[in-house]
């Protein structure tokens, strides 16, 4: 992306930072705190977890949480079907869910935003090709697509990231393209063209900073979708492979226990997923209103 | 889809009471609206209802299309009947045939059709139907059967004679147990309605006749009073497809169904504890085992037989069996041939000795164990894998579970794409020789390598006419397999099912290695 | 206008063509139906016989050509697993999916619209948060888990509703709720934002100035206008619900299209997967087309824009 040295002083693109100047007091406290806690737990999982999350003992299976009869302080939230500590698995699961969720959103976001900008700015055949692919992608139900990708690349945590990223990039591409279509008619873009900036430089330096807000808002809303899809893939047997502790996998593995009374196998990971997705959505809704009024229709 | 494991812990009282309390709250809140909402339970006095785990397909009404999986026989045993078929007492029970006679030279088999056997439409079963059914058969092993059978003669309406090109000791195994070629359909009716018409309204000679079917949803059958063996005890059978096993258990508890197929792990444990319900295991023809595809690679740790032996010694089969299948699976030392197959060799029971395993690993040069890479398995049996990976870790063999969705797993396994450790579960019909062909010798569908002496022995037995000598050769091969730990055995899987309080005789486990309820004419409701 | 429409239609056909190619290759890359129709370890001859029967021994381009040829004749082929025409299977399942989706839509709107209105009318107050959280909860729990909890509660413990299957309206309640709840959040969000937009409009200000009571302003004027985009979205979501209910249909043994597709994938039943995906794709593409055209009719600038 070679940008020619431009000597002309350009009117700077609308200050992006201004939109960020939201008062911190407005931040919805509860969801932000929850996400922060989950993030901290994920980072310090090694220090926090009392047991190895992947190794259990067949003699200590299905221990209930400590407050129930039969429970012990050794396993605060009980043990699962292989005698592994549920609390430790939840703690390490936070890491897997955070990594899967955030990385998948980033993969989808980067691919989708890049293609959206290319498509919207370059127009012509590039636009045609990208939009036709996007249409095709959107016509294929996301889960079907994910199942096939999982069968092709095989399940592993990083493959799930790729799968979810590839499945969901279209949502970005569509929205971002729409924004770029109107941005490219704006004055600062015209001026940049007059000033002799290359199209790559315009896309990178003038268009991108102006769509990044939308991408962030979309990302926060996609986080929930991605986490739920990850859990659903586990239910269908193609999610993050055991014995790795992922919340979705724990929920799907423990679901039979629900009918038997081993409620802690699903209620805890279920609550974790719920809290994370709910917080991400609430935060996303707030960001949407704050950052990008145009996106309200989404 | 999910791992299912049983709990040894007593049923946690706190958990239930918590749920009960919440129920009361909800019930109090909505209590007024509940009058008359209670669903009608499908417990009509002369009907039994099944909750089936797989989707029912019309191909299952068609013995000619038996493709080599056992599921269609779930329906075939009700709708149709075979000349000779596996029954509770014997693997080769004359059914529509009154008698079977093999000639001295082993090249002619003569069957006499049972007097009075009739199809559901009233037509008598004749030798022409038998010949017709054999000739239109197009399912598994069809090429083999057609290549070896020279002619089928029908000297009279009740006698059928199969002429073989040469003596074939396994003819009856294939005709009567491993394929659908011996199952008889009515020639006249089929010629009238055609293949598609037959699938829409099948007519057979089995204990139950077809009433209605919605693909993938529900099948209804009704007793055929003219069945030769006996009049079926239950008037109507309904098979409902319920894919999720938790839902199946719920339906069984509610009395919506009477028999639930495949209820595993904790659910099975729950089932066993629920008053009125009973757990019914059936050991099937799939022995589970570990395969070491790198054993022919001199650089791999698995090349050393001691390492493979150590892996086998590390597996806590009893503990895993208790945990996963409530102790109902059969622990076996024979990794690929199930007990009950022809030429099955009974090895000594496999040992569980982690200390000895560690010693063997140390002798082989791995005192601290080694990193064994991926452990590949069919994701439907990832629960077995999880447990075994844990066991292997216990002696220092560090592997990482890699469950692959079934279709992709079988494809890639067969394409020889895997390395390190593969968890296999051979389930094909046949006998010891067919299993050895697929899993041990050169060119086998699932063999990643072979040993020359075993290949030679296999060649010898294929041309061996004398049964005793052939048996000796096949036994020797299986012995070598165990000696060298080419595979590490796990168990012969038990299929766990549940029955409700209305069921008298369910028919589980009566026919050896058959996972479903059969024979249907023996199934009863309580009190009848 | 005619040119715009014909171009959009051409794009749609192109998308569907790409979709057919994608799904055709996808199913074939990831597994072999023959391997699933026999137990592992079957002889190569038997596998070859099955391949031959299904026409899988021909070159890929021939298979694809045949697929397209019969498609052009309205034939989606014969299911490998069921051995019946895919179209028959599809049509036998479609009514169930439509019933489920419609009932789910009712639940979804019953949750989404009131909570959206509450949230819009009481911005930043307790009911705003409560409504939002309840609608978002449906989005925050995997539907297989919601389904199992519902079965546990309403079938096993309370015994009010049948656990699974289809047939009576009672069978419909739980799967429709589980499916509808998931979509409620989208309807809540749109109701809220479009209510806010309408409430801020001159028209409403005028109504208020006329001295109408606030409740009447909201009920009669604001709600009516805010409803239009919500109904549009509901229309799109209805189509999506018909096609994506895999998990709910599996848990409740509901014989719909989602399960047909999922089982098709599990068994690598190529014709079923191809057929169902194409029909689902066609539905989605047609809805998108309809919306594009609708908007173009309403707002001519769009025609030039795109």
What does this structure look like?
The complex is a heterotrimer of chains A (298), B (528) and C (306). Helices cover 68% and strands 0% of the residues of chain A. In chain A, 57% of the residues are buried. Chain A is an all-alpha fold and 298 residues long. Chain A has eleven helices and no strands. Chain B is of the alpha+beta class and 528 residues long. Chain B is 32% helix and 20% strand. In chain B, the strands form three sheets. A ten-stranded mixed sheet of chain B has the order 8-9-10-1-11-16-12-15-13-14, sandwiched between helices. Chain B has a four-stranded antiparallel sheet with strand order 4-5-7-6. In chain B, strands 2-3 form a two-stranded antiparallel sheet. The model of chain B is unreliable at 1-41 (pLDDT under 50). In chain C, helix 12 packs across helix 13 (270-298). The relative contact order of chain C is 0.14. Classes of the chains: A mainly alpha (298), B alpha+beta (528), C mainly alpha (306). Chains in contact: A-B, A-C, B-C. At the B-C interface, helix 1, helix 4, helix 7, helix 13 and helix 14 of B face helix 2, helix 3, helix 5, helix 7 and helix 12 of C.
What labels would you give this structure?
heterotrimer, A: 298 residues, mainly alpha, disordered N terminus, B: 528 residues, alpha+beta, ten-stranded mixed β-sheet, four-stranded antiparallel β-sheet, 16 helices, globular
Would you kindly provide a brief summary of this structure?
The complex is a heterotrimer of chains A (298), B (528) and C (306). Chain A has 298 residues and is mainly α.
Give the low-pLDDT segments of chain A.
1-25
Share of helix of chain A, binned: 55-70%
How many strands of chain A?
0
Helix count from the secondary structure assignment of chain C: 14
Structural class of chain C: mainly alpha
Helix residue percentage of chain C: over 70%
Q: Write down the overall mean pLDDT of chain A.
A: 79
Largest sheet of chain A: none
- Give a quick account of the main beta sheet of chain C: strands, pairing sense, barrel closure: none
Radius of gyration of chain C: 24 Å
Secondary structure blueprint with pairings:
The complex is a heterotrimer of chains A (298), B (528) and C (306).
Chain A: H1 16-20, H2 29-43, H3 45-48, H4 86-122, H5 124-139, H6 142-153, H7 157-183, H8 187-194, H9 199-235, H10 247-260, H11 264-291
Helix pairs in contact in A: 2-4, 2-11, 4-5, 4-7, 4-9, 5-7, 6-7, 7-9, 8-9, 9-10, 9-11, 10-11
Chain B: H1 13-30, E1 47-52, H2 73-79, E2 84-85, E3 93-94, E4 97-102, E5 108-113, H3 127-136, H4 142-148, E6 149-156, E7 159-164, H5 171-178, H6 187-200, E8 208-214, E9 218-223, E10 236-241, H7 245-253, E11 259-260, H8 265-273, E12 278-291, H9 305-314, H10 317-325, H11 354-363, E13 370-378, H12 382-395, E14 397-404, H13 406-414, E15 421-424, H14 432-439, H15 452-462, H16 467-483, E16 487-499
Parallel strand pairs in B: 1-10, 1-11, 13-14, 13-15
Antiparallel strand pairs in B: 2-3, 4-5, 5-7, 6-7, 8-9, 9-10, 11-16, 12-15, 12-16
Chain C: H1 2-30, H2 33-37, H3 44-54, H4 60-72, H5 86-121, H6 126-140, H7 143-157, H8 169-199, H9 202-209, H10 214-244, H11 246-251, H12 257-266, H13 270-298, H14 301-305
